[in-house]
Amino acid sequence: GVLRRRTVAGGRMLTAHLPGKALAVTSLVVDAGAALEPTPLAGVSEIVARAMSEGAAGRDAYEFGVAGERIGATWRASTDWDSLRVGFEVPAAELAAATALLADAARSADFSDDVLDRVVDERIDEIGIERSQPAVLASEALGRALFQPDSRYAWPDGGDPETIDALQHTDIRSYRDTGVRKEAATLVVVGDLEGVDVDGLGRAVFDGWDSSGPTVAAPSVAARGPGRRVVIVDRPGSVQSVVMMGHDGPARAIDDYVAMTTTVLVLGGMFSSRLNMKLRE
Length: 281
Hints:
Layout: E1 3-8, E2 11-17, E3 23-30, H1 44-51, E4 55-56, E5 59-60, H2 61-70, E6 74-79, E7 84-91, H3 95-108, H4 113-130, H5 134-146, H6 161-165, H7 169-179, E8 185-191, H8 198-206, H9 257-269, H10 274-280
Parallel strand pairs: 2-8
Antiparallel strand pairs: 1-2, 3-7, 3-8, 4-5, 6-7
């Protein structure tokens, strides 16, 4: 395939050369997703990802945004159960400049009190809007039904208003310091890399990044165990109903992960799935 792995300045890189693709991606993928969050801090990784672009290396949030816009770059930041991802979509000719900005965000974001307060408030408001959708409420109820209350998987991967509102500034900074580490990060670069100093991009991110320290400890993810349960979520006035059925599954590291997830998609996990086609017949 086109994917190439390499180690640069002690850090991992994954690159893909796609000739003729003028738009490139430079992204840092970190093993600091929601599954590694302590349950009382549910949602902290999402706050960390969003705060990274809100001022770094002497630039405030506005100046960081302008620096990206000047090179035609679009910032992307997100988390899921497995990883935290931050980076840019950018013209291939500006990969070096974008990667330097990415390094600033990952290694020296300010995380000032006012920034963290604003990001937390915005996230709480966002969850309120998400919860206006019945599918979101159903998904949250399914997680609570499948896993023990102290399991991280019993809570949404993005946290909920209660856990996020309870986050202290020290909680957020501590998770950044222990989670966003050189040892846990992979720099992914994809695009037309003809003439690009790929190793130079790696050095910009990893060279001199001293991130030694305690690692994030994986919390309990214990399931409730066997036994059928029926959970009803009453949402007065809802014009749509959602029915979900599920159970806990094997860890992501199993050899059959791709086959397993593909099976789920075929059965009912996408619009053209067998279940949806039957319903629409």
